[in-house]
Amino acid sequence: MIKRLLLLSILVCVLVAGVVAFRAYRFTTSAPSNQHTERILQIPRGAAVVTIARLLEKEGLLTDARLFGYYVRLKKSAGRIKAGEFRFYTDLTPAGVLEVLTRGEEVHYKLTFPEGYNLRDMAKVVSTLDFLDGARFLAMAGDPAVAKAHGFETRTLEGFLFPSTYELTRSQNEKSLIDAMVRQFQAHWTPELEARAKSLHMTRLEVVTLASVIEKETGHPDERPLVGSVFHNRLKRGMKLESDPTIIYGLQNYDGDIRRADILRPHPWNTYVIRGLPPSPIANPGDGALRAALFPAETDFLYFVAKGDRTHTFSRTYAEHAQKVIEYQIRRREKRPASSTP
Prior knowledge:
Blueprint: H1 2-29, E1 38-43, H2 49-58, H3 65-74, E2 84-89, H4 94-103, E3 109-112, H5 119-126, H6 134-141, H7 144-149, E4 165-168, H8 174-188, H9 191-199, H10 204-217, H11 224-236, H12 244-249, H13 260-264, H14 287-294, E5 303-306, E6 312-315, H15 318-335
Helix pairs in contact: 2-3, 5-6, 10-11, 10-14, 11-14
């Protein structure tokens, strides 16, 4: 009788163990859904395994939070689970879910800053991500202490935030972005450029300032060295640069038109008023503009005027320039259809 009871107990234990083993096997090898549906989930820092498991179950990524907790302990993976924002799919098995949690590859968001954007323009791009604050970015980039901490003796980081595409995670902030942008600038400011600047008797700030004006004057890559040559030629002759973008940079409420009063209004960047370079960059130049400032084309051009097709025509004398202004600017305005509004 005792032997029978013992055998029966053993049989029950084996059956229970088999059921548990089967259920565990089925749990670890089965996905909650056969649909490949994305779920982006924030895993809190310091959260317990049971809390994370319940969160995953609520989002349809697990069928049983309790079993997942056992599975994590069995794999001795509790200490390897990362915090952050991760991308999951509803057809992942628990093993796949655990791999996402332990691999720690966070979701990345892209921010693209075109060449020639100034700090205000960049702040608007920053604001497109809900976890970043454009105003805070602008305040940091405009802080002399932040500029000094990065090795720049300037009022702001204008000119030194390299235009490119950056990828950020939700765990990063405005400082992370600024640090990455400065690193990119430093990577592009090569020993070759530094040596060339010294040969021209220009400081890095002067080069970046000139490059920023070139960048704003033309978006056409082939024209940058020509525009650079005009400004170098004018600087050598002691002529004012007379660059429209430098006027615009100092205007508080620019509406798309430059008026005579704007041309005559003195401010530190207005190169129709001041001689030489502005005191600081007016935008953040890319590599092409930096090289155009350092390696301009060899010309005797002193003037250029927009042709209306995003390119420019260049002149050696004022008389030639005046004729081209008539041809490309005044006549083009005269050909415009009359406005229907008074």
